[in-house]
Design brief:
alpha+beta; seven-stranded mixed β-sheet; two-stranded antiparallel ribbon; 13 helices; binds 3,4-dihydroxyphenylalanine
Length: 345
């Protein structure tokens, strides 16, 4: 074993230059590979005189470490093969397809309803989802402990004081906010999300959407209400649609009614969607109770008005014959894709 062989290799390390990863690998094999120069020195080391082993062992190990460190250094600095020979990017390959989303059926129906009422001269009004008891109940003629509050199982945000915060159970609260804010005449529709503490099933959900309507002016009558609903129903469900009104009860309207439209599937003959009746319930409505007008500072002797409220999921179910409310909230692509180009039924 010659010291000068070791020195020569050590000196060559400093001068070693590699441009590419391939060259680095070649240098590694030349020095440290199975038949490499340093590996050969280790072979030689096995046969040298014992007296020399202590001296050369240390030097050889240092050389090997230096060589490895230099290779690592070169590897980090060398450019990859790809950039030496140009990018290995195939520019002729087709790109990843960009999937277009589609509108949610509830959004489609909301937009349709908004468009229909815009044509009738209604503005859109919105209000907060976290509301106070006053705007959801009190101002709408639900006194404390009124049994009608049980119709709407409420999620409370804060409880225990006079006007607790809660998640609105209906968009009728936006009626109140509009009456407080806007001068008469008022013509608005109020789309929005509502919350009720209901067990989730095919027919009920704890989150759903409503559109509320409100019209207040001098001499507004039940006939105006009937005409507005009839025109809406025909725009929404087709020109042959008939409506019927059944007496009902809501604390904020008097008189109140529930509205059915003629079944657009069996055209009145009776099918399993309309349960053989030929009619489908679509909304609640009525003449705004004078107490409600007065609570928001509107003179009930001079003005009258009507209001109505409907569930968007229900309208969408009737329109597209969706049989389970849960579909709307599960974001299953197989369901949502069907509305990419929503068919008219
Ligand atoms: N707020 C009612 C509900 O959630 C729906 C409703 C019925 C709204 C009659 C109205 C109305 O404005 O007049 O069940």
């Amino acid at each position: 074993m010659k010291q000068e062989d070791i020195d020569r290799i050590a000196a060559s390390l400093a001068e070693l230059k590699c441009k590419t990863q391939k060259e680095v690998e070649e240098a590694r094999v030349r020095l440290l590979g199975k038949k490499g120069e340093i590996t050969a020195l280790f072979e030689e080391f096995r046969n040298i005189d014992r007296s020399q082993k202590a001296q050369f062992g240390k030097i050889l190990n240092e050389l090997k470490q230096k060589a490895q460190a230099r290779i690592d250094e070169l590897r980090a600095g060398a450019s990859s093969e790809a950039s030496k020979e140009g990018p290995q990017l195939d520019l002729t390959m087709p790109g990843d397809p960009m999937e277009l989303g589609s509108r949610h059926p509830v959004s489609i129906v909301r937009q349709e309803i908004v468009d229909i009422f815009r044509k009738f001269g209604y503005d859109v009004a919105e209000g907060p989802e976290i509301e106070d008891d006053y705007h959801v109940f009190e101002a709408l003629n639900f006194p404390p402990n009124h049994p009608a509050r049980d119709m709407q199982d409420t999620f409370f945000v804060s409880a225990g004081h006079l006007n607790p915060l809660l998640l609105r159970t209906h968009t009728s609260s936006v009626q109140v906010r509009t009456m407080e804010r806007m001068p008469v005449p008022i013509r608005v529709i109020c789309p929005g999300r509502v919350f009720r503490n209901e067990a989730i099933s095919a027919r009920a959900h704890c989150i759903f959407h409503q559109v509320e309507g409100l019209y207040i002016d001098e001499n507004v009558t039940f006939a105006d209400l009937k005409q507005a609903i009839l025109l809406f129903a025909r725009e929404m469900f087709g020109p042959d649609t008939e409506i019927r009104m059944r007496p009902s009860y809501f604390p904020f309207t008097e008189p109140s009614a529930e509205v059915d439209v003629s079944c657009n599937i069996c055209h009145g003959k009776g099918c399993n969607i309309c349960k053989g009746t030929g009619w489908l319930e679509i909304l609640g409505c009525g003449m705004v109770d004078p107490n409600v007008l007065e609570a928001s500072g509107i003179d009930s002797k001079r003005y009258s008005g009507f209001a109505f409220g409907m569930g968007l999921e229900r309208i969408a179910m009737l329109k597209w014959r969706v049989n389970d409310l849960r579909h709307y909230f599960e974001n299953d692509m197989r369901f949502l894709r069907q509305f990419a180009a929503a068919p008219e039924v």
